[in-house]
Amino acid sequence: LAIDFQSEPVRVVVTGAAGQIAYSLLYMVAKGDVFGPNQPVILHLLDIPPMMGVVQGVVMELSDCALPLLRGVVPTADPDVAFKDVDAAFLVGAMPRKEGMERKDLLAANVGIFKVQGQAIERNAKRTIKVLVVGNPANTNALVCSKYAPSIPKENFTAMTRLDQNRATAHIAERLNVSCADVSNVIIWGNHSSTQFPDVRHANATVNGAKVSVSEAIKDDEYLKTQFVEKIQKRGAAVIAARKLSSAMSAAKAASDHMKDWWQGSANWVSMGVISDGSYGVPADVVFSFPVICSDKKWTIVQGLEIDEYARGKLDITAKELIEEREEALAVCQDSNL
Ligand code: NAD
Ligand code: LMR
User: Fold this and answer.
1) Residues 279 and 218 in one domain
2) Residues 44, 119 within the same domain
3) How far apart are alpha carbons 47 and 54 in whole angstroms?
4) Which of 48, 131, 160, 325 to mutate for ligand 1's pocket (most ligand atoms within 8 Å of CB)?
5) Minimum-distance ligand to the CA of 254?
């Protein structure tokens, strides 16, 4: 298939463009992993003024990659320039946590960024913009961003739990000694935090050519309900302890997967933090990770899954945390004069 040079490029903003995640993500976007192998892109790179020198280096490297789909790069420290006419936004720029912190400890430091960027989206972006929030605490930042861009549909703001889904899928695949491609329908419910509920009760795996449920294949429900859940909940902290930096390559891959499925359609269920409509008894007005299917550039929550007493307990804990985060975030936004 030839690249269609006549087709209009999509404008994509990546914030935190001088940071770790962006360094992997920009390459994935510019080479066609996200918007398709024939879709030209123009990249808008936003960071703060002191990082503009570093951003210039990233611009040089993007040029030196000689990528046929990359039709332009706009480096800037001005949110109004960054969000002008953009079709898709990866909101990565925010402080990462250090060892010993929970992601919600970043709330006071980071939430103001998403208020300002919500306002810039409201003023500048296309009404169809698709926003993926990566910066932590991602669910609550996405909610705040959407509240400050009231004319854009709430469905257009999502938060990343795909890294948790990928972690859980890879973990199950390793345990069963199969490829990640042989494991499907792993779900992440709730917050991208240590209260998230990684759920394999509806997941399947292809083992020795036969499709079976993951519970049947692993034959250890106690393990799946306890150690497995904790392992995924704490995986981000384990990476920080080992790397002394938070995950970046895997976070960029997850961001690419999330936006690709939203833009191009998903083959299986995928988990995305989306505005709750009350499905599965989850309170409204929080950004909660649900299993969704994407088609026609829209996500739809997968309905009708059984929620037993064990799952109910897990969903309620993570929903409660999101309500608490929302209240704290809105108070911070009201206090700040941004
Ligand atoms: P990093 O420190 O390497 O990069 C962050 C960049 O954001 C820096 O260049 C910084 O200057 C920039 N920045 C700060 N304020 C900004 C603003 N107002 N506008 C634009 N840019 C701004 O961090 P990183 O490792 O790339 O991580 C970025 C964020 O992503 C962190 O909050 C981290 O916790 C989060 N994260 C989320 C997930 C997830 O699964 N949702 C996974 C990994 C990391
Ligand atoms: C992750 O899940 O790796 C990121 O959210 C970074 C972190 O703070 O754990």
Assistant:
1) yes
2) yes
3) 9
4) 48
5) 1
Determine which residue's CA is closest to atom 3 belonging to ligand 2: 236
For 291, list phi and psi in degrees, rounded to 5: -75, 130
Decide if 331 is inside a domain.
no
ipTM over 0.90? The verdict is yes
> Catalytic residue at 192?
yes
Cα 7 to middle of ligand 2, angstroms: 37
CATH of the domain at 27: 3.40.50.720
Our measurement of the distance from residue 59's CA atom to the centroid of its chain's CA atoms, rounded to an integer in Å, reads 24
> Do residues 168 and 250 lie in contact, with contact meaning Cβ atoms separated by under 8 Å?
no
Asked if residue 224 and residue 168 are part of one domain, the reply reads yes
Please state, in angstroms and rounded to a whole number, the distance separating the CA atoms of residues 33 and 25: 10
Asked if residue 122 and residue 32 are part of one domain, the reply reads yes
Digit-coded pLDDT (tens) for 219-267: 999 999 999 999 999 999 999 999 999 999 999 999 999 999 999 999 8
Look up the domain containing 96 and give its range: 10-159
Domains in the chain, number: 2
Contact 106, 98 (CB under 8 A): no
